[in-house]
Amino acid sequence: MEDEGIYRCAIIDLTPKEAELTVIVPHAPQLRGLEVPSKVGQQLVLRCVSSGGNPLPELTWYNGTRAFTGQQVRRQESQGQVEVELIIPQLTKWDNDVNLTCRASQPFPEITSAQESWSVLRVHYAPAVSVPIPSVTAVEGEPATLTCLVDSSPSASISWVKLGHQMPLMQDVRTQTLRITNTTRHDAGIYQCSAENGILPIGVGTVTLEVLYPPLIDPSMEKKVTVQQGNDDFSLKCLADGNPEPRVRWRRKDTNLYWENPLRFHRVRYDVEGTYQCVASSDGFPLEARDTFIDVVGKPILQRKTGSSTTLSAVVGEAVRMSCTVAADPLPSKISWIWRDDDGAEKELSAGVSSNIVINEESQGMTSALIIPDVTVKDSGNYICTASNVFGSVRRNIRLDITGSLPKMIIITSVSAGAILLVTTAAVLVIYAKRRGWICKSHIDEPFRVPASRPMPPVPKYVYQTGTIDSGVEDLQELQEMYGTLKPRPSATGGHGLDIGRTPQRR
After folding, report:
1. Are 431 and 423 in contact, with CB atoms under 8 Å apart?
2. Which residues contact 442 (CB under 8 A, 6 or more apart)?
3. Domain ranges of the chain
4. According to DSSP H, which parts of 338-454 are helical?
5. Rounded distance, CA 209 to CA 333, Å?
6. What is the pTM of this model?
7. Which residues pair with 234 in a beta bridge?
8. What tens digit of pLDDT does each residue of 107-139 get?
9. Class of the 303-403 domain?
C-alpha cells in the first residue's frame, strides 16, 4: 500500500513517460562504521548506503550543518545503490559526541523529499585531570576540600592517595572531590588523584594541603638542666613545631630580656642559675612557653665585695670585722677560720669570748664574719677563711696589723691645742656680739639715771675716792641700793672703807 501511494502521487505530478522512469528513494540511507566506539588517534571510515531510488540519490555527509567535501568523501555506485564513505584520518577527543548526518536527495524536489540518517560519534580517550586549586590552606580543626576535575570517555574511576602512604584514601566518582571534615597537622601533605577508564595513560593530578596550627614546643625538653660552674660555651636549644614556622627565643622568667635560640653562655657562673623560658610565637596564634631550670653546680668561689681589702689595720681596743662570702652549689658545711701568727703557727678559731663568728646563708651563697670586739697587739697576724664541697675548696688570706695607743705627749698637745682654739673662738664671738649690741649694751653704753620722781642724793665721798663706777652689772646694782639708803656697805674687815681688791657681795 505504501508503494501504491508513492506511485499514485508520482502519476499525478508527472507525465506518463516520466512516471515510468522515476522511483522515489523508499528508505532512509543506512549508516555503517559507528557500531563500535573508536579511540583517539585512529582513522575512522563511515559508510552511507542508499538503494531503491531511481535516479540514484545524491548522498552528503554533514557535521551538524557543515557538509563534508573533498578528500574526506568518496562515492561508489553499483546496481541500484549508491555508497558514500566519510574518511576521518585521525580522531581527537573533540570528535566525541559529534552528531553525523547522511542525507539522500534526488533531483526532483517538487515530488521528492530528502531522506536522512544520523548518529552520534563515540570516541574513547584517556582521562585528562585538571586541578582548579592546586594548593589548599586550612586551620587545624576546620574542614578542607580537595578537587580534581576529570575529562574522559568513557567515565573514569577516581581514587585519592596521600603521597608517602600506600593505601588509597577514598573514591568519589560523582563529585571528584576529597573532603576532610576535621583537619589535623598530620593531614598536611601532597594528595594525588588518579583517574582510570581502561585507556592509557592514567590521568593524575596533585593537590597540596597546608594545615596551619599553633606553636608547640617539644614536650621532651628537660625541665631541669645541670651544668658545672666555669664551663665554657654552654648552649641549650629549644625545638618547636608550628605552621607558620614559629620564632623561638629564650627569656629569663618574669622578665622581658630575650635571647636568641639556642640559649648560649660563653662562661657559666653561679649567677646564671635560674628559670628560663623557651617562647615560641607565630602570627595568628598565642604564645607557647615552657620552663627550664638551669642548675649551676661546682666548687666554692670567693666573691669580693666593693671596698673589701685583704689587708686591715686597727688600733688596740678597736673592734675589727673580717668577712668571707662564698658562692657554691652545694653549699659548704661551714666556713673555717684559721689564725696564723708571724712565726707561722696556726690555730683554728671558733666563737668564744675574744671573738665571734656570724654565719649567713643564701640559696647559692654563704657569708662568714669573724668579729673581734677588742683587739690587742697579739691579735696581729694572718686570718685565713676556707670553704669546701664535693667539687673542691677555696681559701682567702686577710692580713691584720695592730698598732699600740697614741703617745701621752701627743694626747696632751692635742688637748691643749683644742682648748686654745676653743678659748680663742669664744673671745672672738664675745667681741663680735658686743659690737653688734647683742650683750651688755643697755647697761654699759647708757649713763646711769635716777628716776625723775625722786631727787638724787649726794654721792658719798668714798665713791669719788675710789674713782670706780663701772665694775660690772652687779656693782652698779649695789651702788643704786647704797645711794638709795645713803648707807655704805661695811667692809670685809669690819671697817667703813671699801676694799677695792674684792668684788662687792650682795647682802
Report:
1. no
2. none
3. 2-121, 126-214, 218-300, 303-403, 440-507
4. 408-436, 441-444
5. 63
6. 0.57
7. 265
8. 877 777 889 999 999 999 999 999 999 999 999
9. mainly beta
